[in-house]
Design brief:
The chain is about 50% helix and about 10% strand. The relative contact order is 0.07. Helix 14 packs across helix 16 and helix 16 packs across helix 17. By secondary structure, the chain is α/β, with parallel strands linked by helices. The chain is built from 19 helices and 14 strands. The chain has 4 domains: about 130 residues, Rossmann fold, CATH 3.40.50.2300; about 160 residues, P-loop containing nucleotide triphosphate hydrolases (Rossmann fold), CATH 3.40.50; about 80 residues, Helicase, Ruva Protein, domain 3, CATH 1.10.8; about 60 residues, Homeodomain-like (Arc Repressor Mutant, subunit A), CATH 1.10.10. The chain is elongated, with a radius of gyration of 29 Å.
Length: about 450
């Protein structure tokens, strides 16, 4: 059912529409003037606004303009008792979805419009459910994000998954490199075969060799039986080698040979066997820098880096933080059997402004900790770690500096990044002062709501 806002300075009209649409199962709220309607529009989301044009404090066209700024997806229906061509043209120009004449048939005119919006909402919800099911079945259910960078990665996964080309995934620790590798595997023709993972940085050289290639009985002290390596275990499937930049140069030579020839020889054996394995590697190191400094082989790099995928750090896709936080909230609240169903606006602002050096993994741990400590029904800023609360408090004072006391650091600074940080901190300070109401924050910063929305999107606020 739809969420309606009825705006009319005649209480009898408000009462009639409220009772009628509530009986049909819709959620209805009422405002008897334009200012009250603006406050409601600033604080919540409505599917439909039904507003009279002629009101004493603010006409319906002005309210329409405001509604399209703060909630462009809301359907706006204008109602008038004195129809004129000029008014109709004005309404259409400002984006009114319907124009209804007030009279005895008002309810009959409004019912079909409201029903159509409700049906469209139901279809969108069903489509969203189907998209989530597809993502679950294709291994993308744990990869969350609507930011442009993440959408590009989702598209890349769908494009390269059917191929057999090797993939090198780069990015900081905690960005989800294994999730990308697993999604590629689950969307490939190899999905029914094994997906094997190994962290190359967790093994010394000799043990890593035996893990990858296996060994035969008697190959070394303690080799009491033949053992298959991970290349054999992943035959027909995918081998994901994480932290490949930590391999020794000697192991790099041996891996290069396997990739070049497609054959594996276990330690202590004289026989080679063919293996059919798609190799996906990942690293948080700059391999080109490692090559220049002699720590990584250039020939191996080009064998691995057929298709590169770079995962952005969380601070570069801040618009995904609320989605990720709510996903982790639902997961951990359920596992801990705690009735926590949300995050306060203050806590969310602190999560959004923090730089997350540990990326998604750090955010996940933070939400788990907050749920364990929270005694209320929503995560509050008091449940967040000190480093996150303190970071927010450090940013806000910068927004009140007049610039006269800012000395240039001895080590210099990145001017572009510094200016962007200041712009972002001003947005946050304005939102903090207005309790999160964007239109008021835009007024404090002496900018249009459209400009404010542009900067908010730019900085992921």
């Amino acid at each position: 059912m739809a969420h309606l806002l009825i705006v009319d300075d005649e209480p009898s009209i408000c009462e009639l529409l409220e009772i009628s649409f509530r009986k049909e199962g819709h959620k209805v709220e009422v405002a008897t003037n334009g200012e009250a309607a603006k406050r409601l529009l600033a604080s919540r989301i409505f599917d439909i606004v039904v507003s009279d044009i002629c009101m004493p404090d603010m006409d319906g066209v002005e309210l329409l303009r405001y509604c399209k700024e703060v909630s462009p997806s809301t359907t706006f229906i204008l109602v008038t008792g004195v129809p004129t061509i000029d008014t109709a043209i004005h309404a259409v120009n400002f984006g009114a979805d319907r124009y209804v004449i007030k009279g005895d048939r008002l309810l009959d005119e409004l019912r079909p419009a409201v029903q159509q919006v409700a049906e469209n909402l139901a279809l969108k919800k069903e489509a969203g459910y189907l998209r989530r099911e597809v993502r679950r079945l294709t291994g993308l259910d744990h990869m969350i994000g609507t930011s442009p960078k993440m959408r590009e990665i989702f598209e890349m996964i769908e494009t390269i998954a059917p191929q057999t080309s090797r993939v090198l995934i780069t990015g900081e620790s905690g960005t989800g490199k294994e999730l990308v590798a697993r999604a590629i595997h689950e969307n490939s023709p190899r999905a029914k075969n094994p997906f094997i993972t190994i962290n190359c940085g967790a093994f010394p050289e000799t043990l890593l060799e035996s893990e990858l290639f296996g060994y035969v009985k008697g190959a070394f002290t303690g080799a009491n039986d033949n053992r298959r390596g991970l290349f054999h275990a992943a035959h027909g499937g995918t081998l994901f080698m994480d932290e490949v930049g930590n391999m020794s140069v000697t192991m790099q030579v041996k891996l290069y040979r396997v990739l070049q020839e497609g054959k594996v020889r276990p330690i202590g054996s004289t026989e080679e066997t063919d293996v059919d394995v798609r190799v996906i590697t990942a690293t948080n190191k700059d391999l080109e820098k490692e090559i220049a400094e002699g720590r990584f082989r250039e020939d191996l790099f080009y064998r691995l880096n057929v298709i590169p995928i770079h995962l952005p750090p969380l601070r570069e896709r801040r618009e995904d933080i609320p989605l990720l936080a709510r996903e982790f909230l639902g997961r951990f609240a359920k596992s801990m059997a705690k009735k926590i169903d949300g995050i306060t606006p203050e806590a969310m602002r602190r999560l959004e402004v923090y730089d997350w050096p540990g990326n998604v993994r750090e955010l996940e741990n933070t939400i788990e900790r907050a749920i364990a400590l929270e005694s209320g029904n929503r995560i509050s800023d008091e449940a967040l770690p000190d480093r996150i609360r303190n970071h927010f408090q450090e940013l806000i004072p910068h927004a009140s500096h007049n610039g006269n006391g800012n000395a240039l650091p001895a080590e210099g600074l990145n001017l572009e990044e510094h200016i962007q940080a200041l712009e972002r901190s001003y947005l946050l300070a304005a939102l903090e002062r207005t309790g999160g109401v964007r239109t008021q924050a835009a007024g404090i910063l002496k900018m249009s709501y459209r400009s404010f929305r542009h900067y908010a999107k730019k900085y992921g606020v």
